C-alpha cells in the first residue's frame, strides 16, 4: 500500500515537472533554415527529396520574403536542432495571407502531410485559426519540409510554440488587434456621424477610407476564418475590398487637395487611376496574379508617393487654399517611402515586411482621422463664430437701417403734418373768402337795390363748391379702381361739350381729335377718367388766353381683348418751366406768377393720384414759353363682343 502511494506521488510530481517544463518553453524562432525555389510550382515531395543538398540555399534571415511570384518555396529544417522535445509543439509557418501551406513531417521513416490555406476546405485544416498552425509531437525527431505559395506577398517565418506559449501569443494578438480595432472603430462611426451632420466631405471621405482599410486588413489577416464558407472566395473578396479602399482613398485625396479647383485633366487622372486599379485586380483574378499584383502595387505606390506630392505642389502653385493636413499627409508618405525603400529600416515599427497591412497599422490612420475630426470641428466652430459675427453685423446694419427709416418716416410725418397744417390754413382761408363775400353781398342786397348782387353771390357759392369738390376728389383718390363697360366716343364728346364753354370764356378754340381706330365700347373707370380730363382741360382753359386747346385721343391694340388708349391735352398758354414741372404735381403747389388766377393747387395732384390708381402716369412736356402738353396712356379692356370681333 505504501508502495502504491509512493508511486502515485512520483507520477504526480513527474507530470507536474513535465507540465512546468512545457509551460516554461519559449517560442523557438528557427534559424538554420534552407530554402529551395520551385519556379514552376510543379515539383512533388519525392522530387524535392531527390534534390542534392546544394540545391537548398541557407536563409540569411529567420524568414523568407517573396512578392508576387509564381514560385512555390520549400523550406527545410531539422527538429534535431531544437531542444526540449518532450512536449507537444505547434509550428506556425508564416503570414495568414498564404494560400497554400503544406507541412511534411518525418515520423518513423515515413513522411506525414498536413495542409491549410484558402485552397483547402476548412475542415481539412489541423486547427481552424487566423494563422494556421500544425502540431508536432514528441516522437517527431526528423526533418520538416514546408511548401508555401501565395497570390500576394509571401512571408514564411517558421516558429515552434509550446501549447501555453501559443495560447498566450494568440491572447496577446487578440488583445492587440481588439484594442486597435476598438479604438479605430470608435472614431470611425463618430466621424461619419459628425461628418454627416456638418456636411464635411473631407471628414466623410477620410472616415470611409479608414473603414475600408480596416476591412482590407481584416481580410488579409485571416479573419475570414470566422466565416469558413467565405474562405474559398478569399481572393475575390480581397480584390473587391481593395478596390473599394483605393476608391475611398482617391476620393479622400481629391477632397483634401482640392482637385476640383485644378485643371480638369487632374480629375481625369485620378479617375483613370481608379480604372487602371480595377483592371489590375481583374488581371490578377483572371489572368496572372503575379503580374497583376505587381502592377497593382506599382499603382498604389505611384498614387501615394508621387501623385499626391505633385498634386499638392500644383495646388500650392495655383494659390489654392489648403489646410495643414493637406501638407502633412503627403509629407508623412514621403517619410514612409524614405524609411522603407531608402533606409530599409525593418526595425522601425510598421516599416518591416511583416507589418505591411497588419491590424496594428490601422492605428496611424485612426490618429490621422482624429486629427481630421478635430480640424473640422475647429473649422466649424470658427465658421460658426464668423457667421455669428456676420449675423451681428447684419443685425446692427438692419437696426441702423430701421432707425434711419424711422427717422425718415418721422421727418416725412412731420413734413406731412406741417403740410396738413398749411393745407388747413389755406383751405380755411379759401373757404372763408367766398363765404365772406356771400355774407357781404347778402347784407348789401338788403341795404341796396343793385341787381348784380345775386350773380356775385352765386359765383362765390360756385367757387366754394368747386373748392369743396376738389377736396372731396383728392380724399377719394385712394379708392380702388371701378371699371364698367361704356361708350368711349360718347363719353369723350360729353367732355368736349362741357369744356367748350370754359375754353370760350377766355376766347380760346377747343378741338377734339378722335382717331378712327378708337373703339366705341370699352371697360374703363369713367369716373376717374372724367376727373383727369376735366382737371387737365380746366387748367388749360384757365391759363390760356386767345389760344387753342386740343384733346387728342388714339389707340394701339394690345391683343385680342385689350387696347392701349393714348390721350393728350395740348394748349398754347404760357407753359411751365422745366424746373417746376415735377413740383406742380404735388398737392397745393402752384406756379410762379399765377396769383391772379383762381385755384387751390390740387388739380394736377388729383390727376396724378387718379392716374396712379388706374395704372398710368402723367407725362408733362413744356419749354416754359409756348404751351404745354399733358399726356398719358391707359390699358383698357374690351367687352366680350368687341374682343370677339377683333379675334
UniProtKB/TrEMBL annotation:
Membrane-spanning parts: 172-195, 202-224, 236-253, 265-286, 324-344, 356-378
EC number in record: 2.7.13.3
Gene Ontology molecular function terms on file: kinase activity
Protein's UniProt keywords contain Lipid metabolism: no
UniProt keyword annotations, A-Z: Kinase, Membrane, Phosphoprotein, Signal, Transferase, Transmembrane, Transmembrane helix
Domain of life of the native organism: Bacteria
UniProt keyword Glycosyltransferase present: no
Signal peptide: 1-19
Residue span, Histidine kinase domain: 426-638
Catalytic activity: ATP + protein L-histidine = ADP + protein N-phospho-L-histidine
Entry protein name: histidine kinase
